[in-house]
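Sample intake sheet
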Amino acid sequence: MPEIVLPDEARRATEFLNRADIVIGIPSYNNARTIGHVVRAAYAGLAKYFPQWNGIVINSDGGSTDGTRDAVLSARVEDSHLMLLTTPVVAAHRLSVPYHGIPGKGSAFRLIFQLARNLGAKACAVVDSDLRSITPEWIDLLLRPVMFAGYDFVAPYYHRHKYDGTITNSIVYPLTRALYGLRVRQPIGGEFGMSARLVERYLQREDWETDVARYGIDIWMTTIAIAEGFRVCQSFLGAKLHDAKDPGSDLSAMLQQVVGSVFLLMQEYENVWEQTGATAPAELFGFRYDVGLDPVQVNVDRMIQTFVRSAGDLREIWTAAMDPVTMSGVNELARQAEAGARHFHMDDELWARIVLDFACAYKRSPVSRGLILKSLTALYIARVASFVIETETMVASEVEERIEKLCMQFEELRPYLRQRWNNPNPLQGGLEHAGHSEQSVAGRG
């Protein structure tokens, strides 16, 4: 893949610095309120845990207009942080540069990775810019397994509110685990540590102009690391407190980009997941402890109403995308929804079959992929509504057991996926003739 053209200030900065042992990247877009804290934590983490290494904190910004870049460059580490140090400190540098290309987190990462390679970094970590719970210890936990234990990829493991991370809990974690055999609990967590050789592998890829450039980047990174045999582990970071969203109102674009990346990678790594047997947990570093979490507000009634409306509007598309048995279950669910919210329940097997059917439809109908992903959104919303109703009174440990059961259902349906994956669906051609434009579906989610 050809290198991107570095912004002038990034090129001048790398020429001045010449090299860095560690790079910490922070993508941003209008995060002035929170990014100063993230930068200070990254600085303090480098100073406390890697004092004898050259480090640089790079903010890759997507055109913020709220003073985000100024907040990065003006962030200061209080003197109290420096009292923690007992060894000579190599001063960390700071760089805030705009990225170019497709707007999104992935484009920001691409610039960070290229700068890390140009500087000869031994390790690179990336963290989100809206974090309120990041501490200096996060930097140690993301980088130490790479710097001192020979790992190539460090995924985050943290406690989240039971309704935060619904795309992870309902689709990405169960499906990725079932496909590739490694239990990485937060495959799209947002905070990762990487070795130089894995960064180089990412930069060699040819798919930077796809949804990977947007929200698809996290699962793209995780899947490549697992499927291509890089050494993968997790680090426990405590609580993830950030700007969480109502899972029923704001996540349709993210869902489509993330799930689209998962489905595309399923095709690339088909020879890997077809051989997957029993799953195994990824090694976990860090000390686990209980934490308090911010509440997440969920509007269940609105989600169910969206599903009921979509069940009529999208029936032809769903019928073309899903197996008849799956579609029968969806029709029954729509009848439940009309009967009243408290009777609304989508069981694990139906949900897993829906996801796997859509993966197969996505593979077989390249010209309809946007339509397929948009029409999945209403079914995802129905699953989240069912999950919220079912777990309303459950504590965190009980919810985690509930997610574990869903994962097992995905694993049990691997033979179903293998059977469906390469067998044409006689109804599949209906996707191109379902009578709905992508624009009409887009307004439904």
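Comment: The longest helix spans residues 369-391. The first strand starts at residue 22 and ends at 28.
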